Queue: 2 jobs
Job 1
Amino acid sequence: MDYYHVVFTLPAPISAIAYSNKAVMYRLLFNVAAETLETIAADPRHLGARIGATLVLHTWGSALTHHPHVHGIVPGGGLSLDGTRWVACRPGFFLPVRVLSRLFRRRFLEALRQAHHAGQLQFFGEYAALVDTGAFADWLAPLWNCEWVVYAKRPFAGPAAVLAYLSRYTHRVAISNRRLVAFDAHGVTFRWKDYRAKGRTRHKIMTLSTDEFMRRFLIHVLPSGFHRIRHYGLLANARRKKNLVLVRNLLHATPDASPENEDTSAGTTTQPTFVCPDCGAAMVIVETLVRASSIRAPPRYRGAL
C-alpha cells in the first residue's frame, strides 16, 4: 500500500492573525484539513471511501518566520462506505489537490467567521480594528478569491519511509543545531532555504541579531497542552484498533509483531523502542541509570542561633 504526503498551508494574512490566536487557529487548521480530506475522499466521484490520516503541525518557515501548516500522512485508500471492502486509490494519485484547496479555503473561512462571531479571536496593533464585524468581513473578502496552497508530494517509498519521516519530523523544533553556523558579536548566523529561488541559489546564509533570533524562535512555542500530532478517520484513537483489524482482514495482511499484538500473559515484557531523530534507526539501550537520592543539607547545630 502507498502512503501519501499532503500539506495544507495558511495564507500570509491568516498567519498574521494566527500569531495572537494560536490555540483557536491551529485547532481550526487541524480540524478543517482533516474534514477536507475525509469529505473529498468519501465523494464517489473521487475515492468513495472512509480514510485515515495522521496530521503533524509545523508553524515555521526556513527563516523562522511564522508559517503555520500541517503535514498529513495518509494511506492510499480507505474502507468503502458500507465497510465491506478496501478501496485503493489510483497508482501515484491520491486526491485532486485543486479540489482539496477550494474546499479547504471555503471551510476554513466559514469556521474563521464563526469564531469571530463567537468572540473567540483577539486582535492587537495594526489588526485591532478587525474586532468590528464589518471590518473583519471586508478584510476576509480578498481571501475568498486567492489561491490557498494545498499540495500532495509523491507517495512515500513504503511503510519504512513513513516511519523514517515520522521519526525525523514529528518532534522537531523550528531550527536544528546542524543549521547553526555561528554565534558572535554580530548575532546568530544560520542556514536557510529560499523556496522562491531555484537550484543551488536556494541555500543561503542569514544573520540575525540575538534578540531577533530569539523572538523568531519563541513565536513557535505552542500553547500549553496543545497536541501537535493528531489522528483522524480510521486512525482516530477511539476506534483505531477495531478499524485496523477490519482493514487487515480485507487486505489479507498479517499484523507485524508489536507490544499490542504480543501475548504478555506469561509475564514477558517488551523493551521500549527508541528511534534516532536523525537517521530513523532503532536505538539500543546500553545502560539504564537509576535516579540517585537527593542531596540533603547537613543537620543544623543545636546550639546555633
Note: The CA atoms of residues 30 and 151 lie 16 Å apart.
Job 2
Amino acid sequence: MDHAARIEETIQGIYHAFEHPGQHPADSGLTAIDNWIQALDGLGGSALAGLQGELRNLRGHVQNDDRPAIANSLQHLGQETSLMARNMHDGVGDHLRHLGQVLITAAGNLKMS
C-alpha cells in the first residue's frame, strides 16, 4: 500500500470511529497505530522518529483508555503532521495536510466528549 492510500485509510478510520464509536473497537485502532509505526520504521529523520515515539505514546494511551491523554497525543500528532506537510507540494503533501487537520479535529472532539 502506498503512503497516500495508507493516509486515506487512516482518515476514513478516524471518521468512522467518531461517527460510530460503539462499532470501532480499540484493537482496530491499535492495529492501525502499529501499522503506522512499522511504516515509518527505517525511513530515518528526527521528525519521523518523533512521530514514531508519539505513536507509541498514543498506543499506550489507547490501551489504558486514557481519553485526555489520547486527545493530547492526537493533537500533537496532528500539529506535527501538518508541519511536516507544509513544504510538500504534491499529492502526498495534500493527504498529510488533510490527515493533520483530521487528527486535530479528532482531538478536539475527544476533548469535548
Note: The chain has one domain: 3-112.
